[in-house]
Amino acid sequence: MNLLAQGVGTKGNNGRAVFYGAQLLAIMLITSAPPAGRALALPIFLAPGQPNPTFAWDASTNAAGYRLYFGTQSRAYSSMVDAGNLMQTTIPNLTNGVTYFLAVAAYSSNGVESDFSSEISYTAGNTPTNPPSITLTSPGDGAVFTEPANIDFAAGVNSNGHTISKVLFYSGSILIGQSAQAPYSFTWNNVAAGNYALTARLLYDGAFEVSSPVANVSVSASRPPPPGLSLTLAMTPEHLPLIEGAGAVGGHNYAMQTTSNFVTWTSLGNVTADANGHFSFTDSSGASVLARFYRAKDLTLPASPTLGLSPTLVLSMTAQNLPLIAGDGTAGHNYEVQATQNLLAWAAIGSVTADNAGHFSFTDSGAGGDPARFYRVRDLTAAGLADALSGTLGQIPPLGSH
Q1: How many domains does the chain have?
Q2: d(CA 146, CA 134)
Q3: What is the predicted pLDDT for the residue at 154?
Q4: Whether residue 253 sits in one domain with residue 314
Q5: Pair (12, 123) in one structural domain
Q6: Are 95 and 124 in contact (CB under 8 A)?
Q7: Residue 106 is part of which domain span?
Q8: Which of 158, 183, 308, 315 can bridge 393 by disulfide, Cβ–Cβ 3.0-4.6 Å?
Q9: Comparing C-alpha atoms, which of 59, 57, 26 is closest to residue 43?
Q10: What is the spatial distance between Cα 280 and Cα 274, in angstroms, rounded to a whole number?
């Protein structure tokens, strides 16, 4: 069915100039005109039998336009339709029951025309009886994903006695995958944010196609990491504590604070992050202290009802020797409480809502006999604009003196 044209600027036996490497694949009949620029690589009819059938073909390299030739005798075409630079055109008023032969030719910007493509025949009004049906069972219409999304396609097919060739999966007019045998499925990986109209198209009996209803899905943009703080503690060659941090981009200013009992916090000074959110601070007074803990407070975060303040936390023990996290944040905001034993892997252990004054408290009933446990909270109400992430608190060991 395919013709590979030969020789730039030469003349074929029929006197036509042809293009080098111009491959015009078989033309196809389709129910309704696809978007301009669509290129179908298979010699298929799409739901024939329409009174004004539309035909489509593949693109030819460097072609300025296309002409569709047709007639009632093979390779002796009595009529022509110039489609311009579209890869489709409609032929009106074909006579039912009459078989037509069709081929397409490409032409260059100066009017030089290629040889004919492979030829197909079409009998007007010839409609398949009891055609098969196809439904897109996955994804469902209205499904929502988050980028980079992996979308699983699955199609249900009822052959109704016809021979099934394959199922093609489309996003709009773009072919994104196919499956040649049941179960007809495919996974579209790393899908970017956007809205997509998805369909499954069934090829059957070697020459026909039927499409599923459209499933409209959306992929939302992934939310960037919260501009909360992560701190790493190291030592300088002089054995002074070196606090390195990663926070919000854009030169935020941070207040460095220290404590030895998680109750009283003392300010050590301020540091400004670079454009990438990185900063470092040396505690010049830390060499003589037996144990010291650190946190950083983002002074640049706005104090607005929507965004909220970076919450501050105080850790104590209940009468049952359970960690009690008390915090001051933004009134009415919901906070997720997170815990870790190694300052690397954090797990959410619950949530709490601040009162009208911004105060909240949370008891970690699952602390058990952990030798060390650290806490922070994340402002869920600020999510989507900017997260306010607290500094890190270490657990007071459950000693009998508490």
Answers
A1: 4
A2: 27
A3: 95
A4: no
A5: yes
A6: yes
A7: 1-127
A8: 315
A9: 26
A10: 10
